Amino acid sequence: MTAPRSARSAPAVEGLSEALHFELGMLGIRVELVEPGGVNTDFGGRSFVFTHDPGFPDYQPLVDMAAAALQEEASDENQEPHEVAEVIFTAATDGTDPLRRSHPALNCDV
After folding, report:
1. Is pLDDT at 3 greater than 60 in this prediction?
2. 45-104: per-residue pLDDT in tens?
């Protein structure tokens, strides 16, 4: 399960993951939670190529707000995608069963 890490969605994702961890664990199904924080991707780059489309002037204020919010979230403390992938791969393959995963390279608040 993946979800954006934000103040609104994080508690819901954590609660659901914790419930699934304990309930499905009895059936041998593992559920682990990885919370990497910010990840350096091009999500706000190529995904926003429509930002200045003159054909949609009514949407421009909303698009500008979204672009500004993404820029505010940019941080030098973000993780690289390969660092997050390493933690997820380990979670899926190491045979252990912790609820939460951390890694020194990730800025996890676990």
Report:
1. no
2. 666 665 667 788 888 888 888 777 777 766 677 788 898 899 889 888 988 888 887 656
Describe the chain by its helix, strand, coil percentages, rounded to 5: 45, 5, 50
Query: Residue 34 forms beta bridges with which residues?
Result: 101
pLDDT band at 14 (very low <50, low <70, confident <90, very high): confident
What is the secondary structure of 21-36 as a DSSP string?
Answer: HHHHHTTT----EE--
How many residues are there in the chain? Answer: 110
**Residue linked to tokens 């041998």:** 28
Amino acid identity at 50: F
Q: Which residues 6+ apart lie within 8 Å of 81 measured at CB?
A: 39, 40, 41
Whether residue 91 contacts residue 72, with contact meaning beta carbons closer than 8 Å, is answered with no
Closest CA to 14 of 35, 43, 44: 35
